[in-house]
Amino acid sequence: MASSPKRKKLIIVESPAKARTISRFLGNGYVVEASQGHVRDLPKSQLGVDPDQNFAMKYITIRGRGDIISSIRKEAKNASQVFLATDPDREGEAIAWHLAYILGIEPEKANRVEFHEITKAVVQNAMKNPRTINTDLVDAQQARRALDRLVGYQISPLLWAKIKKGLSAGRVQSVVTRMVVMRENEIDAFIPEEYWDIHAKASVGQGRASETFPVVLSNLHGKKASISSAQDASAAKATAEKGTYHVSHVRTGEKRRMPSPPFTTSSLQQEASRKLNFSTAKTMQVVQQLYEGIDIKGGTQGLVTYIRTDSVRMSQDAINAIRSYIPERFGAGYIPAEPNEYKGRKNAQDAHEAIRPTDIQRTPETVKEFLTRDQYQLYKLIYSRTIASQMAPAVYTTLTAEFSSEHAEFRYYGEKKTFAGFTVLYEDSQDDPDAAPESLIPNIHEGDRVTITDVDGVQHFSQPPARYTEASLVRTMEEKGIGRPSTYAPTITTILNRGYVSREKKRLYPTELGRMVTTLMEEYFPDIVDIDFTANLEEKLDEVEEGQKNWKEILQTFYPSFEMELTKAEQEIEKVEIKDEVSDVICDQCGSHMVYKMGRYGRFLACPNFPACRNTKPIIHYIDAPCPKCGARLLEKISKKNRKFYGCEKYPECDFVSWEMPVKEHCPQCGSYMVQKKGKHGDVWHLCAGTSCHYKVKIENQGNGMDDEGI
């Protein structure tokens, strides 16, 4: 009599790519299926959260997932055991919980496994140590899902119905949009302040032995040099040139620069943006591929550990492997006596390691032929940063010197790298790099006579805060506690796709639509766009994950005040409903008076007989100032990236453009045209547009000086 075939064990993961990789590690005794993300969720057609029933969640099977669920059920029915191996985070835990429900598996059953890296040894070991589903993680995910649904599904329809079709809001997206708007408001209100530096050249000794190096005036008449005008700069220069100088102070030292910690999700997104010009979404897409597995010699392997983490911790095994590799590759002097230790940021979740290579011996060069260009660049970045994090610091010799006369003092600072340390492998980058090259360390001593030559004044102007890049926005979100590693990239992608924010040369600008929604949210839902309020909610979600708070308590605390805001908005937004404003422009297709409409890129003219007549026209804003180049009228325009600028109506015959609004007056000092800006307190300033003048004058508010016409 033939024996019945041995039943296989079923493993359910999220990604088909991960399923293929894991199936090769475990052999014929296992079947690996992919859920392809969530299989159950709240319905799209209704709220799905019932505040009157203690926030009961209504889950349904996601449309289009029927075949996937049928396949999983079939395999589960024939399997000797089922393991839920979804991603090791809140979302993954929730997916495992939903799968258990669909398959009729008790959550208390020890069938949940976690793969923090997709390598054969780690996968096989994880299969030996299953656990029960972590209901605290599930509850944290449910609380976040409920909050997002309550906010998004109740504010968006309100804005749609009461204000304008197409407006929408989200719990995290709205506060991040407001951050971009607030930064732009700071820039708009900024008035540059003039200041000067006095530079010179100093030399000690004579002939070939003399060394010349740049110095800056630090003190004048016994006080710190503070120069704010060309007149003061000229006087300071004259005083500095008269003096006889000597070396009054010399201090030498040694500076050590420590390497940065291995990557978290946030720091990887930032560095990939700065060094590789990757968007946050692209970074996560590529690193997901490296995590799930790459076909290389010897089979498919996951090249990096789990990619959604805010921990800088590495396992002791990984540290030991790195410390063995460093002296082999770079020499014994490049490894510190003890492993480098790093502290994570406040409130960092330490469940996962930092993002690191799964095998230190798998260098970027050895796998380059199996990777795409993007995969190779990102893997090399992760690999180099990981190794460098355990290397010796870079060492610099420093020198600070002061050169004094009776009425003036110049200062010099120089540093020279004497030991490369970790920088032989990896150099950190910055959003706005301003690192000076290595400087001279002159051989000088206190009392030496010094010759000061080439004294000259250099004019500067204070700069407004920089616009956010994706990298700096992620950093700010992390610092302020807005979102978590898994939400940074999706949030930025959402506000870009909705047209609330635009991206131009890596810089982020709020659109007219983004400003409008932010203004409405600030007036009617101030808590939702409040940074501290949002960060506090994130902390409470962390407390749920840690088992310190019941998830329903968060909703019970949040919803009453939010419901009051909703009620108030429903009553009051009626009073500010934006109705179509009739223009005096005649539709050239049907003869009706066209009306003003608000679109993604601002206002435009449309025929009121839509959809019978679909005629539209842009709105032309003429400003009350002539073109500085040809004297024609100037127009306010919108760039392809939604930035406002001003250009000549005779374009392309005249190519004059300006980001700031020109005014009628000319600069009394240099004759250049001037532009208008508003200060922090609503003051109106006229500033010279000349590159080397920067004359400015405060004036009375005279309105925007613009006329609207439709063409």
Beta-strand residue percentage: 15-25%
Backbone shape:
flat
Q: Into which percent range does the helicity of residues fall? A: 25-40%
- The radius of gyration computed from the alpha-carbon positions, rounded to a whole number of angstroms, is 32 Å
Give the helix tally: 17
The description of the largest β-sheet is: 8 strands, antiparallel
Determine the oligomeric state from the structure.
Answer: single chain
Describe it.
This protein is of the alpha+beta class and about 700 residues long. It contains 17 helices and 30 strands. The strands form 8 sheets. Strands 19, 20, 21, 22, 23, 24, 25 and 30 form an 8-stranded antiparallel β-sheet that branches. A 6-stranded antiparallel β-barrel has the order 8-9-15-14-11-16. It has a 4-stranded antiparallel β-sheet with strand order 26-27-28-29, with no helix packed on it. It is flat, with a radius of gyration of 32 Å. The model is unreliable at about 430-435 and about 700-710 (pLDDT under 50).
